[in-house]
């Protein structure tokens, strides 16, 4: 297998089917849905020029860590990431990873935390384009007007995930700074 190949695995989780994809540097994509074939097709569409290979054995540890996150628990291990990000998006992801499990922040609170007090909409866009859902917990960001708001993988999944996390550990999700560099 080429070093630049994207390996992936699909497992069952508390949120449905969960696809984890990784390069040799770390996890580059996480998808949640009900149809494993559709998740794989979405991965292939997002990376049309990369060789993509299913490799359940190589990704078993990371898949299990993501299963823990889907259940609202700490992953039990660090999950390295390979995600290109602008400086702004990296700051947003760092702020998201600092939100303790079981808590939420508003888009405006994250915007203020990253030094862009008028940037709530830009924070929302960064969350919507988060390719590593669960690892970078964009589900912990909610609208100031109430409710859970939107979520790429469905607001019911977001609601369930937040409810599971509310009953678990309060530790931050991850250290995004050590996981990805701007590109």
What does this molecule look like?
The protein is α/β, with parallel strands linked by helices and 183 residues long. It has six helices and six strands. It has helices at 36-46, 60-70, 87-97, 107-113, 120-128, 155-166, and strands at residues 6-13, 16-22, 27-33, 52-54, 105-106, 141-142. The protein has a four-stranded mixed β-sheet with strand order 3-2-1-4, with helices on both faces. Strands 5-6 form a two-stranded parallel sheet. Strand 1 (6-13) and strand 2 (16-22) form a beta hairpin. The model is unreliable at 169-183 (pLDDT under 50).
pLDDT below 50 for ≥5 consecutive residues: which ranges? 169-183
Q: Label the CATH architecture of the largest domain.
A: Orthogonal Bundle
Task: Determine the CATH topology of the largest domain.
Answer: Arc Repressor Mutant, subunit A
Strand content: 15-25%
Number of helices: 6
Order of helices and strands: EEEHEHHEHHEH
**Net shape:** globular
Terminal CA distance reads 25 Å
Largest sheet, spatial ordering of strands: 3-2-1-4
Structural class: alpha/beta
CA-based gyration radius: 15 Å
* Residue share in helix: 25-40%
> Could you say how many structural domains there are in total?
2
Mean of all residue-level pLDDT scores: 89
Largest sheet properties: 4 strands, mixed
The CATH homologous superfamily of the largest domain: Winged helix-like DNA-binding domain superfamily/Winged helix DNA-binding domain
* CATH class placement of the largest domain: Mainly Alpha
Number of strands: 6
């Amino acid at each position: 297998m080429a070093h630049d190949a994207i390996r992936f695995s699909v497992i069952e989780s508390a949120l449905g089917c969960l696809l984890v994809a990784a390069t040799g540097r770390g996890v580059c994509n996480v998808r949640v849905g009900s149809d494993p074939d559709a998740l794989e097709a979405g991965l292939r569409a997002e990376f049309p020029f990369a060789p993509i290979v299913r490799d359940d054995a190589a990704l078993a540890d990371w898949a299990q860590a993501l299963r823990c996150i889907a259940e609202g628990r700490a992953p039990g291990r660090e999950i390295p990431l390979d995600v290109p990000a602008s400086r702004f998006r990296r700051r947003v992801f760092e702020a998201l990873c600092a939100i303790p499990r079981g808590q939420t922040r508003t888009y405006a609170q994250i915007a203020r935390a990253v030094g862009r007090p008028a940037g709530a909409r830009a924070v929302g866009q960064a969350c919507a384009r988060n390719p590593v859902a669960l690892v970078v917990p964009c589900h912990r960001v909610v609208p100031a007007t109430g409710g859970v708001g939107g979520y790429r993988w469905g607001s019911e999944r977001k609601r369930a995930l937040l409810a599971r996390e509310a009953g678990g550990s309060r530790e931050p999700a991850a250290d995004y700074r050590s996981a990805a560099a701007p590109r």
